[in-house]
Amino acid sequence: MSLSMLDNRPIGIFDSGMGGISVLGEAIRQMPNEKFIYYGDSANAPYGEKTTAQIIDLSDRVCEKLIAYDVKAIVIACNTATSAAAEYLREKFAQIPILGMEPALKPAVQEHPHGTIVVMATEVTLREKKFAALMQRTAAQAKVIKLPCPSLVRMVERSVVTSPEAELEITNCFQGIDTDSVNAVVLGCTHFVFLRKAIRTLFGGSLQIYDGNAGTINNLKMTLEQKGMLTHSENEGGVTLLNSKNDAYNLQMQQLLDLYEQVVI
Ligand code: DGL
Question: Cα–Cα distance between 57 and 109 in angstroms, integer?
């Protein structure tokens, strides 16, 4: 790659709050030379209980803030904001690539074509047409159980991801579901990725758990590579954490980021 093809601007990543920190963790792992600016909109979390119009408006404001930092791409590290606002954002900020997320139903169905698959996501993600289209494209023969878990979003917003409180909340969310008959769980909300290990511990080793983080970051990498927008491979990467709520949240985001490898991988 010629030097003129390199792009040293930062990459913007945002979520309604803490969940997207799990996507940031994966991004740092896969792209250690890049600079990232993460914006958590914790003052307005959860997005998953808002109207589509509200989510578009909030996502628009966050993207304006990231654009002011001269980001070269934006990752919507939120399934909810992707479902509600990705189209709008891609049209409005057409000058840079905008990558979104969707529940990793496709790989779950590929590996369990006739299985029972639980998709944990927000009400918004599960009701939007994007998810209906995904179901139609991928889930022909599988039994898909949609499981909205708003209490888990609020819990992860408080950085509770490993305690007995977390285990109790997860157990409550699965009440009414015969977990022995479940073959796979799809974490269709980036907040829930922080609960990956806790869910596995609760439901035993045979349960397969899927999330969209690695796929999204692969996509980001490929897109920037194709456009000649990756940074120099010898550059030192870095992270700037921003939050709409208050400075205490910045510390909380850093602590979650430090926990990433321990609770997710
Ligand atoms: N983390 C978000 C997602 O991936 C949503 C959480 C929320 O704000 O409700 O859907």
Answer: 33
Picking from 125, 117, 252, 97, the residue whose alpha carbon sits closest to that of residue 179 is: 117
Quick one: CATH architecture of 105-211? 3-Layer(aba) Sandwich (3.40)
pLDDT at 165 over 50: yes
User: Is residue 173 flagged as an active site residue?
Assistant: no
Residue 45: CB within 6 Å of ligand 1?
A: yes
- C-alpha pair distances (Å), 116 with each of 81, 119, 123, 139, 178: 26, 10, 20, 10, 10
Q: Calculate what percentage of the chain has a pLDDT beyond 90.
A: 85
Report how far ligand 1's centroid is from the alpha carbon of 141 (Å). 27
From 63, 78, 149, 173, active-site residue: 78
Cα radius of gyration rounded to whole Å, the chain: 18
Q: Which of 189, 249, 253, 256 to mutate to test the pocket of ligand 1 (most atoms within 8 A of CB)?
A: 189
pLDDT of 1 higher than 60: no
Q: 3-101+213-263, what's its fold? A: Rossmann fold (3.40.50)
**Does 58 sit in the ligand 1 pocket, CB within 6 Å?**
no
> Alpha-carbon distance 91 to 45, whole Å?
24
Domain boundaries, the chain: 3-101+213-263, 105-211
Q: Do domains 3-101+213-263 and 105-211 have the same CATH topology?
A: yes
Write down the pTM of the prediction: 0.95
**Which two tokens mark 98?**
């905008």
What integer best gives the mean pLDDT of the chain? 93
Q: Alpha-carbon distance 23 to 12, whole Å?
A: 12
Is 63 noted as a catalytic residue in this protein? no
